[in-house]
DNA sequence: CAAAAAAATGATATCAATTATCGTTTTTTT
DNA sequence: AAAAAAACGATAATTGATATCATTTTTTTG
């Protein structure tokens, strides 16, 4: 994967913003910083960066997709009220729910775990 | 929560289809079964059923939201090629990734875990 | 039971996030 | 330097989902 000027800027902007921003939020942020570029370019680059495992894509129910500059398999906690997302250290693998509560102080009420891989039918 | 005729039909249709369908797919399915109703009604009912914990809502990256008729906290595995979703028994809490591989035969390459709860700021 | 209140529906307009298109520009390869 | 490949920008189009609102159904209650 090449690193164009725009791709660098998208990646930098994502690293600067610590809010797990949406593509649209990043687009606005770049625009405000005189790094204006086409919305399509922001979407395209985030997509590619995620496909190549550089960044992490977060699917939030009822909202736009969000991005995390760090792709180290760490966990996320989302507030049902404000939509804010907090990070949880990756070592909380066992007893996940109570670990998540400890790590963030949230009152956990549900949890969604999704794995991604290639199924038998598609493996060929 | 009341159970209107339409809500019953949506729930039945969801239970019949074992594919974790999207709202739109359910709408088409109902239409084909002479149980035609407004798309808005299908969306509304799925939303309410999920909010009340009767069904489970699955956010899939880059796709429409999907629904699972069973809300028992079990895990899901999605194929990066065809988008198909398989179920994983809920007892695979520790060593989640290798358990997921065993349960489904998929070659797991990533995993997203999201918790939902109310943060300190919104707790009042 | 009948009237009033509440909830749900249907049809459709609208919104918002994302992708597609395509001609142009930039970057990489040879 | 020429050719090929990749990326960009602007904008149109798509699509999943929600909002609106008049009508219908269901529930409550006097």
CATH homologous superfamily classification of the largest domain in chain A = Winged helix-like DNA-binding domain superfamily/Winged helix DNA-binding domain
CATH topology of the largest domain in chain A: Arc Repressor Mutant, subunit A
CATH architecture assignment of the largest domain in chain A: Orthogonal Bundle
Count of individual beta strands of chain A: 5
Oligomer: homodimer
Q: Overall pLDDT of chain A, averaged?
A: 84
The SSE order of chain A reads HHHEEEEHE
Which spans of chain A have pLDDT < 50 for at least 5 consecutive residues? none
Biggest protein-protein contact in the assembly? A-B, 47 and 46 residues
Which overall shape of chain A is indicated by the principal axes computed on the Cα atoms?
A: globular
Biggest pleated-sheet summary of chain A: 2 strands, antiparallel
Fraction of residues in H or I helices of chain A: 25-40%
Roughly what fraction of the amino acids of chain A lie in strands? 15-25%
CATH class (first level) name of the largest domain in chain A: Mainly Alpha
What's the alpha carbon Rg of chain A, rounded to whole Å?
16 Å
Q: Strands of the biggest beta sheet of chain A: in what spatial order?
A: 1-2
Q: Give the number of domains of chain A.
A: 2
Distance between the termini of chain A: 25 Å
């Amino acid at each position: 994967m090449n690193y164009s000027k725009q791709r660098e800027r998208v990646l930098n902007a994502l690293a600067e913003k610590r809010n797990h921003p949406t593509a649209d939020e990043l687009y606005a942020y770049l625009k405000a910083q005189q790094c204006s570029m086409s919305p399509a370019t922001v979407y395209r680059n985030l997509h590619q960066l995620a496909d190549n495992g550089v960044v992490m894509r977060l699917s939030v129910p009822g909202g736009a997709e969000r991005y995390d500059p760090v792709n180290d398999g760490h966990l996320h906690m989302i507030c049902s009220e404000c939509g804010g997302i907090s990070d949880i250290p990756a070592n909380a693998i066992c007893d996940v729910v109570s670990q998540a509560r400890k790590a963030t102080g949230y009152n956990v009420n549900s949890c969604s775990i999704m794995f991604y891989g290639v199924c038998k039918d598609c493996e060929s």
